[in-house]
Predict the 3D structure of the following.
Amino acid sequence: MALITLFSAAGAPGTTVTALGLALAWPRPVVLVDADATGASTIMAGFLRGQTAYDRGLLDLAMAARVGTLNTAIATTTLTLPGSTVEFLPGIRGHQQAPSVAGLWEPLSGVLRSLEQQGTDVIVDCGRLSTVGAPLPLVRASDLALLCTRTTLPDIAGARSWARSLVDEFADMGAADRFGLALVDEGNPYTAREIRKALGAPTFLSLPWDPQAAGVYHHAAERRGKLSASKLGRALTAGANSLVQDIARNRAKLGTNLSQEGRQHV
Ligand SMILES: Nc1ncnc2c1ncn2[C@@H]1O[C@H](COP(=O)(O)OP(=O)(O)O)[C@@H](O)[C@H]1O
Ligand SMILES: [Mg+2]
């Protein structure tokens, strides 16, 4: 159904935890992509405890794109996250590999979007947007592009320039509804309404501060009880369902606009 990208502007607001948590809570089949151009490999090192062989990933797709087999290569380049049905596509292993995947983002966005024909959604962790080699083509091709930030004054100041330029860019594409914010620890101290005034962008997802549960997503910290029953886990489930509805609503609106344009042209 959809391509959803998550990214940060500054600091480490919780982009990877949010992307992974959403994928694990997603109500439909989903592929999670690590497109962080720093090569931090947070999910391989953290949630997977560095215990999964790093024998596939974006570099394989870059090779496949060069020989024209990108369409079929995705299925053999993902691994299933333990205890879930999430298919995970590992990223690059260091910043030196970023130039090798720079030409991949454009063709990959087309291939990822086409996965919806199989009923599969895609969530991409794009890392920090100012990183050299960041996957901006994926952001622009998203059904929903979410800038992840916390809500203190320095966080808002750090998010401002990317928020403003993306608001303009999506508006120029006639897709203003496809860009917004994912807030971590909303209300501490600023609320979504206040941040909308400052950044000019709406909030699509608001997650609570829950260091214990976040530690499980981030570095497989020990936990008693089900992750999905934690404060963060419950918010992620509710958030995933509401994002699915937001995307469906945007698409329905787009369909109505297109059919109205069609009628005007008749
Ligand atoms: N909702 C949350 N509540 C508490 N801590 C969080 C939350 N989300 C992320 N964190 C913590 O923030 C730190 C950075 O998270 P991470 O997802 O790696 O950020 P980023 O990908 O933006 O660099 C980690 O220590 C993680 O456990
Ligand atoms: Mg990250």
Remarks:
- Residues 3-264 form a domain with the Rossmann fold fold (CATH 3.40.50.300).
- The mean pLDDT is 95.
- The radius of gyration is 18 Å.
- Residues 190 and 239 are 19 Å apart (CA to CA).
